[in-house]
């Protein structure tokens, strides 16, 4: 049986703000660092894959994205996006139809998680445009956007994140 909620519940965003000086935004774009981590799955049946991803996935989800926005007193911004996804150890051992389903699901899952990451980048860009004033409120806004995105897409299911 599938869990009710099998994917990314939300995003954790942390803004570190030091005393803001001056009043002009930095000219450079926020520095963005994206990391994709994987966890191994090896099941060769549909139910086995679902069970393994439910058990091994980050925070009990199949995938998860965390983004962090940081800025300095002179309004230099950086964004770190950490995405965790499943990776099959031996995809050639899966039956062809299951491998196709898994590959299709993984592509949709990756796209879904990357959209969460883009929300973090957009938050940083907005903070930069605001000259780092009101950054915490902007982070809350983009956290809410992530929650709404997951509700709208049913945590990616409406975008093809499913094994069936």
Structure in words:
The N and C termini lie close together (12 Å). The protein has one domain. It is an alpha/beta fold and 164 residues long. Strands 1-3-4-2 form a four-stranded mixed β-sheet. 39% of the residues lie in helices and 20% in strands. The longest helix has 34 residues, at 96-129. The chain is built from three helices and four strands, in the order ββαββαα.
Question: Which features characterize this protein?
Answer:
single chain, 164 residues, alpha/beta, 4-stranded mixed sheet, 3 helices, 20% strand, disordered N terminus
Number of helices: 3
- Structural class determined from secondary elements: alpha/beta
* Shape by Cα distribution: elongated
Strand order of the largest sheet: 1-3-4-2
How is the biggest beta sheet arranged?
A: 4 strands, mixed
* CA gyration radius, whole angstroms: 18 Å
Total of domains: 1
Percent of residues in beta strands: 15-25%
Instruction: Report the strand count.
Output: 4
pLDDT < 50 runs, ≥5 residues: 1-26
Mean pLDDT: 85
**What percent of the residues sit in helical stretches (DSSP H or I)?**
25-40%
Sketch the topology as an H/E string, one letter per element. Answer: EEHEEHH
Instruction: For the record, give the distance between the C-alpha atoms at the N and C termini, rounded to a whole number.
Output: 12 Å
């Amino acid at each position: 049986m599938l869990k009710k909620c099998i994917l990314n519940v939300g995003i954790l965003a942390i803004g570190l703000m030091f005393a803001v000086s001056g009043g002009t935004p930095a000219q450079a774009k926020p520095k963005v660092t994206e990391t994709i981590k994987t966890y191994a799955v090896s099941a060769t049946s549909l139910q086995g894959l679902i069970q393994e991803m439910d058990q091994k996935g980050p925070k009990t989800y199949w995938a998860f994205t965390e983004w962090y926005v940081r800025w300095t007193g002179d309004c230099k911004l950086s964004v770190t996006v950490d995405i965790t996804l499943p990776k099959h150890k031996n995809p050639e051992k899966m039956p062809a139809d299951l491998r196709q389903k898994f590959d299709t699901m993984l592509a949709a899952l990756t796209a879904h998680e990357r959209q969460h990451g883009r929300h973090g980048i957009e938050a940083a860009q907005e903070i930069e445009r605001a000259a780092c004033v009101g950054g915490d409120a902007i982070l809350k806004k983009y956290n809410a956007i992530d929650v709404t995105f997951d509700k709208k897409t049913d945590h990616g299911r409406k975008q093809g994140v499913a094994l069936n």
